[in-house]
Amino acid sequence: MSQFDAIVVGGGVNGLIAGTLLGRRGKNVCIIEKSDRFGGMASYSVDGGPTLAHSLYNLSPRALGDIGIGIQHPVLSSKPVSTVSLSEDGRHIVFKNDGVYWSDGTKHRESDAWSDLTRQLITYGDLLRQLAEAPPPGGQKAILSRGALNEFLRLAKLGIDLKKLGKSEMRRFLQVVLSNVHDIILDDLSEGPVAGMLAADAIWGTATGPRSPGTVFNLIYRLGHGGTITQPAGGMCALTDLMVEAAQKAGCLLMPDTEVSRILLDNDAVSGVETTDGRTIAAPNVLSSLAPKLTSRMTGPSAFDIETMRRVRNIRARGTTAKVNLRLKDSSALPSLSDELAHERLIYAPSVEYVEAAFNPAKYGQMSKAPVIEAFKMQTADGASWLSTIVQYAPSDLEGGWTETAKEQLAEIAVETLSRALPGLGDQIAGKQVITPDKIESATGAPGGHWHHAEMSLDQLLTLRPTNGMSRYSMGPKGLFQCGAATHPGGDVMGLAGRNAALAALEALP
Amino acid sequence: MSIFTDPKLGLIPGPFHKKLEEQNRAQNWYDWAGYAGPGVLDSVEFEYFALRNQASLFDISPMHKYRLTGPDTTAMLNRLVTRDVRKISVGRVGYAVWCDEEGMIIDDGTLFHLGDNDWRLCCQEQMLTWLLDAAWGFDVSVVDETHSVAGLSLQGPTSYAVLEAAGLDVSKLKPFDLAQIEHSLMISRTGFTGDLGYELWCDWDKAEALWDRIWKGGTHQGLRAIGYEAVNLARIEAGFLTAGVDFQPVHATERLHRGQTPFELGLGRLVDFNKGHFNGRRELLSKRENPRSLLLRFDVEGFKPSEGSLIYNRRKKEVGHITSGIWSPTAKRSIALAHVRMPDAGRSSGLKAEIYTLQEGKWRTRMARLTPVTKAFFAPPRARATPPART
Predict the structure, then answer these.
(1) By CB neighbour count within 10 A (0-12 exposed, 13-18 middle, 19+ buried), where does A163 fall?
(2) Quick check: A302 contacting B, CB < 8 Å?
(3) Cα dist. B221→A29, B56, B166, B207, B389 in Å?
C-alpha cells in the first residue's frame, strides 16, 4: 500500500504548484526537494544575496488561483514597476503603462508608436494565453469524450477570438507571430533605445538574438499576462514561502534536503522513488519538475523507447544568461539616477543592433563584451543593498569554461557597461557575486542553466514541447509525468506548466 | 550511411570475390549492400540441387555485423529486441526482430551470444546509427564488424561431412549452437535454407584460406558454390522472410503505414511482454489483438510462379498480395508467402491469386486457388539431427 498518491520531484515553482493542486483535489502528495529551501530557480541565491529571479511579469493568476492564492494577496499586490532604459548621456527613458517618457518627465516622441505596438502584442498574448492555460492540443483522447469536446471548444474559442481581431489584425498576427523581433519592431519604431527595450524583452533567458526567428513569439509570451512587472513584497522568497504554505495547507508533505536518486518502476508503471540516503518512498505516480533528460536518467533509459531518448537528449537548452549581483557599499542613490527611478527596473539596451551584437559572441562560446543588462536595486533581508543584475549573454558552454578569471571578467564587463550610464557606479560596489549558467545548472538541475529547461523556439513549443510525443505531460511508464519548465507552456515563474501537468495527472489518476 | 555511396566505386569485391569470380561462369553479379554478390554462378537448377542434395557454399560477408560488448549489453539488447535475450545462453544463436516506437519492425537478424556480455548482431539492414542510439545511456560498445568479419554459409545434407573432411569437428553443435572451433574461426549451426548447414565466420583476410580449405574438404561431397537465386528458393521453402520483400523495414519506408508488427508477420512468439520494457512495447500491447494483415503461407494451385500476384476473396475483392512465390522443386508444388488483410486473413479460405503468365508473346491471367499451410513447406529431419548424418 502506497503512502502517497503522487510524489513531486523538485520543489520549484512548478513542482510546488503541481503538488499543491493535487493536494487540494484530495490526493496524498509528497514534494521532494534536494536543497534546503523550496522555490527552485525563482528563489535560489548565494550567501543571502539577491535571488536568481528578481521580478514577476508572467505569474499566472489561474495557476495561483488553483492553489488557493488570491492575486490580491499582500505579497503580490506591490506597485508595478516601470522600466528605465539607461542612457550614456543621462537622458534615461522611462517606460510606463501609459507611455514613454524622458527621465525629466517629458513625453518621448515615439511614445504612441511604442504603446500601440505593445498593446497589439498584449492582445496577441491574451490569445496565446488560452493555449498556455491548457495542455497542448492534440491529445489522443477518444473523439467523443468529454476531454476531447473541451479541447475542441477551447480551440474553437481561440479561432473565434482570432476572428474577432478583425481581418487585418488577424492577418498581422499570423504574419508576425513566427517572425523575428528585429524586423517587427523596426517597422514601427526607429532604431534606438525605445526599440532596444522591446528587443531586449524578447531575448531574456534565451539563446536568441533579435534577428532570430521566433523572437516575436518570445516577446508575446513575456507579455502574455499583460506585461506588468512587479516585485513581490519581501522578495521572491516571500512568494515561494507563500507557495510552500499553500502546499502545506493542501496537506502536502514537504521533504527538503532530500535528493531523489531513482524513480522506481514495477511492470512498466511507477512504483515510487528512491532517495540518495537510501529511503524508498512508494507512490503510483511521480511528477518530475526536472528537465526530461534528468528525469529519464533517474528512471533509466531502459524504460523509454529509443526514439524518445534520442529526442530527449537532443532538446536544445543552452543557457546564455548569468546573474551578477553587485553589493553596494550603502543604500545611497545610484549615480545619475533620480530617487524615484532608483527602484524601477533598469535595463541597458541602447538599440536593437546593440542587442543583436551582444548575441554574436555567444554563438561562438564567448561572453558578450557589451552585454544587455537588466538591473534592480534592492535590499536583502539582512539590510544589505544590492544591484541585482541579469547579464545577457554569458553562454553556459563558454570557451575555456567558467573559471574564476572568466567570472571576474564577466563582473567587470557588467560594471563597466552599467557605468557608461551610471558613471561612478564602480566606486559604490563593495562586493560581487557571479552566478553563471553552469552554476545555475549544478544548483538547480536546469540543463545549461536555461530558464525554461528547453529553449523556447518554434520547434520546441506547444505539441513539440518538450519533444514530439511527450506534450501531454506523461512520459514512458504509467504514472510518470513531467511538470517542469521544459513542458508546455514553459518557465518564467509562471506556474502553468506545473498546473497543467497536475490536471493531466488527475485525469489519469483513478 | 553506407561507405559505398560513391557511384564511381561500382560494386566492390568481397573477401571471397576471387574465388567466386573463378567459378562465376554466368557472370551474374548483383548488388548486395554495395558488394558484388553472385546471383547465379552456373545455373540455378544445379545450385539449388547441390544445396538440397549435396553441399553448397554461399558468401554471406555483406551481411551487416555488429559486435556489442560491455557490462550493460544484455540490458541494452533486451530493450532493443522484442524477445528476452536472457534466454539465449552463451554459445547459442537466437533469431530476433526489433521495432520502432510504434511497434513496426525495423529489421530481423540473428544474435550470436559469444561470451558474457559479448554479442554479435547479424542483419540485413545497416543498423549502426540505430544501435548507437539504442546504446545511449548503457555501458555498451558498438563496433561495426561488417567489413572485418567474413561469413561463409555451408548448407546441405553433406555439409557436416565437408567440415569433417576439412578437419573441423562440429559433431557436438546442435541447431543454433555456435563454437569457436579454431583461433580465427567461429562456426554456428545456422542458415537461411531450413536444411542441415553451418555458417563459418573468420577474419576478412583469412577468408580465401578458409574457402580453399572447405573447398578441398568438399571434393568428394559434391560441394558447389552457389548464388542468391538458389538460396532464395530454399529460404521460401523453409518459410523464412526476406527484408524488403516479405516485410518492409520501417526505417527504409517513406510512405506512411508500410511498416508491420511482429504479430502481422506471424512472429508473435518472438515478443515477450513479460521481460520488461522494450522498444515499441507499449504500442505492441495495443496492436497485438488488432493486426491489419497477416503474413500467410499458401499452396498455390498450378505451377506458375505467383510472386507479385494480387489476392482476391470470394467476393472478388482484392485483399492482399503474394510477396514470395515459386515452384518448389523439393515440395513439388507451387508455394507462396503472402500478405492478406484482415478479416480475410483470419478466414483465409476461398482466396485466389491472380497470376499473370507470359507464353510466347501472349499474356494470360489465371485465378489460382490458395490453400493455407501452417508449417514450413520443407523441413527435413536431417536439419535437426545431432550428430548430423554424413550424407
Answers:
(1) exposed
(2) yes
(3) 75, 10, 11, 21, 13
Size of interface A-B (CB pairs under 8 A): 45
Domains with residue ranges and CATH for chain B: 9-63+147-238 (3.30.1360.120), 65-144 (3.30.70.1400), 292-378 (2.40.30.110)
**What's at A355, amino acid-wise?**
V
User: Complex ipTM, two decimals?
Assistant: 0.91
* Helix, strand, coil share of chain B (percent; to 5): 25, 35, 45
Instruction: Tell me whether residues B276 and A268 touch, CB distance under 8 A.
Output: yes
Q: Grid coordinates representing B278? A: 522494450
**Residue-wise pLDDT tens digits, A106-141:** 999 999 999 999 999 999 999 888 888 888 877 655
Q: What is d(CA A456, CA A451) in angstroms, rounded to the nearest whole number?
A: 10
SS3 B310: strand
Alpha-helical regions (H) of A292-349: 292-299, 306-313
**What mean pLDDT comes out for the span B43-48?**
96
Summarize pLDDT for B158-205 with one digit per residue, the tens. Answer: 999 999 999 999 999 999 999 999 999 999 999 999 999 999 999 999
Quote the pLDDT of residue A476.
92
* pLDDT attached to residue A139: 62
| HSE of A169, CA atoms in CB hemisphere, 13 A | 15
The answer to whether B47 and B226 have CB atoms below 8 angstroms apart is yes
Interchain contact A310–B (C-beta under 8 A): yes
Confirm if A29 and A19 have CB atoms less than 8 A apart.
Answer: yes
User: Which of A305, A313, A477 is closest, CB to CB, to B279?
Assistant: A305
Beta-sheet strands, E only, within B262-388: 293-300, 310-312, 318-328, 333-341, 352-359, 362-373
**The residue count for chain B:** 391
Phi, psi of A415, deg, nearest 5: -65, -45
Which of B81, B101, B104, B283 best probes binding to A when mutated, by most A CB atoms within 10 angstroms? B101
Q: Do A297 and B137 touch (CB under 8 A)?
A: yes
* Tens digit of each residue's pLDDT (9 = 90 or more) over A43-78: 999 999 999 999 999 999 999 999 999 999 999 999
Q: Which residues on A lie below 8 Å from B137 (Cβ)?
A: 296-297, 300-301, 309
Min Cα separation B267/chain A (Å): 20
Distance CA A111, CA A102 (A): 10
Give the per-residue pLDDT at A140. Answer: 55
Whether A300 sits inside 8 A of B80 (CB atoms) is no
